[in-house]
Amino acid sequence: MVLLYVFGAVALINCAYYLLFSKFAFLKTSEKTTSEKYPVSLIICAKNEAENLQKHIPLWQQQQYSNFEIILINDASVDETLEVMERFAENDPRIQIVNVKNNEAFWANKKYALTLGIKRAKNTRLIFTDADCYPASDDWLTLMASNFSDEKQLVLGYGAYEKQPGFLNKMIRFETLMTAVQYFSYAKAGNPYMGVGRNLAYTSNLYYDNNGFMSHIKIPSGDDDLFVNEAATANNVAICTDEKAFTYSLPKKKKKKWLLQKKRHYSTAKLYKPKHRFLLGAYYLSKLFFWLLAIATMFTEFWYFGLAIIFIRLVFQYIIIGNAAKKLKEKDLVPFIPFYELFLVFTQLSIFISNSGEKNSRWK
Length: 364
Description:
Blueprint: H1 2-25, E1 40-46, H2 50-61, E2 68-75, H3 81-90, E3 95-100, H4 110-120, E4 125-130, E5 133-135, H5 140-145, E6 154-156, E7 159-161, H6 167-188, E8 200-203, H7 204-209, H8 225-231, E9 237-239, E10 247-249, H9 255-266, H10 274-297, H11 303-327, H12 337-354
Parallel strand pairs: 1-2, 1-4, 2-3, 6-9, 7-10
Antiparallel strand pairs: 4-8, 5-10, 6-8
Helix pairs in contact: 1-6, 1-10, 1-11, 2-3, 6-12, 10-12
């Protein structure tokens, strides 16, 4: 019977997190319009991305925004990245190129390259994406920039992955969905903790007020989430969840490459503020122990009470996460949410165990 009480308590903690996530799941997307269009600088850091730049620069150029520049940062590429940038810059005065060469202090450090790009920008409001990302519409810049105000200096967007056949694609999109549900919900609750560089915006004032990336300049990851964790407050963050403001990129094709990417990303979480580490850790453990105890209770004489607890928790999950998935255009994931969660929980466990904190000074 004690096992059942513990199981009930864990499920209750799970449901409390889902109630937190409902702040985003049931948030109405507002029709944002601005009478004043702030000039913005679109900043893209590229390392050996010639092929992607060839495809995506035209999509950035055709954004329906009256006043913006494009800062293209060539981070010591060894392919034709710089040549592609220069060809487009010849015919578009909005394009500015920052050609970064490796130096001994910041060898292959994306944050160093981004810093040079930010210093080159002539506008206060900065919008970031990656070279392998493309906008969902020509209104992307307009929608992201419309969230800036005197108070709101940081805008969190959604960086989605393309839908493709296969289980790995669904797992990658589910992990991305759940990450977004969390950082959007925490932001709406006045406790922002991260964002993704595939779709992120902030002001240069915020950047300089927080000394840029200096507190974590030697960490290969974290130009997005660690900066947001340090600079975001309850009042200076806005979220942009209009489907026209999404960015998309191709997910990893091989499981090994995806796991290596996640291992690098998860390694930055240990540098989050203590309250965020606690909340995120408690959420993960509540999921892990929910599934372990769900299995254990099936082998007790009170298994039918265990089934009732499982049912109630799954109802919470389907209603809230299901609604969030529809909002972020991931509706095809909804029918198998518990299955994806179960697989992801144990995949993350294996990453946490194997993540030995190896130092890697290269961002790609």
